[in-house]
Amino acid sequence: MYFYCEKCKKKYPINSHSYQCECGGMFKLHRDLGEDYADKISLGEVVTPLVHFQSGKLDFLLKLEGTQPTGSFKDRGARRLINEIHNVGIEKIALDSAGNAGAAIAAYAAAAGMDCEVYVPDDTSQEILHQIESYGASIKKVKDGRMRACSVVKENLGDAYYASHVYNPLFVEGVKSMAKEIYKQLGEHVPDYIFVPVGNGSLLMGLYYGFLELGRLPQIVGVQSEKCAPLYEAFHGLEPQPKAASIARAIRIERPKRGLSILKALKNCHGDMMTVKDEEILEAQKRLGKAGIYVELSAASALAAAERFFQAGKPDNYRVVIPLTATGLKR
Ligand SMILES: [Zn+2]
Asked: Quick check: helix, strand or coil at residue 117?
């Protein structure tokens, strides 16, 4: 297993302290066919439930990712990332995150006995901060938002390994497991559609690569907030609009690092990009709550998009999956 540059193909070992190629290209992961993963570190991951949900005349399948050990799908990526770097001797990591990824990586780092520093925007929720701290990680608060936390951590890495859920392809490698679970839960079928909230796109790309390995792609519909929709604009060839903060924290990324790969993936699966309004997200969150399911706002955004996408009706035999990315308990 090794990293290679998406542009010039130069190879880098997994324990490299470079987090992108010297040419500026992002890393991709090479893994030999059948090569085993490291799997010593576990927090008791589960096969998350896939449950039916009726919204008016529409039926959807919800993948309840809030049941993972730290409460979000990010545990899939964190588990893979920490296992592989622990296996090659990394003992100290630093990362930036505004939420679930930071909590997930801090938890797995704790289980692996690693030192962990998490750089967070100073408006990060108290619940997330408490969760990260409880795993023994040290928190560095950064003024002026998410993008700045990313540049500050890179300037202050020292001898720490940059365990980024955005730069490090091991994270997306872990998210692929969700595609395989869905396939099994549908009796070895790929869904027709899957609606995915998109910030940095780790969920979208993980599902895309996972289904690609299974040999058939669902139509993937990426969902962004109307207030911050760089990929929606690029996908539909629209003028970039000024960006503002959506209530859904995980989907307010202004410049996704792997934007081009995401757009390519969406075209390849005949997918689409949609935006949703804050009011629609809140209403969808309430509807889920009334069914006994409490989720983070980003998860609700995908349901809001699916409901609008099929507002004129949906063929009964279409299987539409919506991953509910995280519990609502830590917003
Ligand atoms: Zn390169």
From this structure: strand
Nearest to 180 by CA among 63, 75, 272, 69: 63
Per-residue pLDDT tens over the stretch 286-311? 999 999 999 999 999 999 999 999 99
* Ion ligand 1: residues, CB < 5 A: 5, 7-8, 10, 21, 23, 25
In the prediction, which pLDDT does 269 show?
98
- Which one, of 76, 140, 134, 130, lies nearest residue 110 by Cα? 134
Please name each of the domains of the chain with its CATH number.
1-36 (no CATH), 50-70+175-324 (3.40.50.1100)
Q: How many Å lie between the centroid of ligand 1 and the Cα of residue 169?
A: 15
Closest CA to 50 of 59, 38, 37, 41: 59
- Taking a C-beta distance cutoff of 8 angstroms, is the pair 274, 221 a contact? yes
Distance 4 CA to ligand 1 centre (A): 8
Q: Cα(167) to centroid of ligand 1, in Å?
A: 14
Tokens of 137: 């990680």
Q: What was the pLDDT predicted at 331? A: 65
Burial of 224 (0-12, 13-18, 19+ CB in 10 A): buried
Find the 11 Cα to ligand 1 centroid distance in Å. Answer: 9
Bin 215: left if φ > 0, else alpha if -120 < ψ < 50, else beta.
left
Cα(227)–Cα(249) distance, rounded to whole angstroms?
Answer: 11
C-alpha to C-alpha distances, 267 to 147, 157, 228, 230, 318, nearest whole angstrom: 27, 36, 21, 16, 20
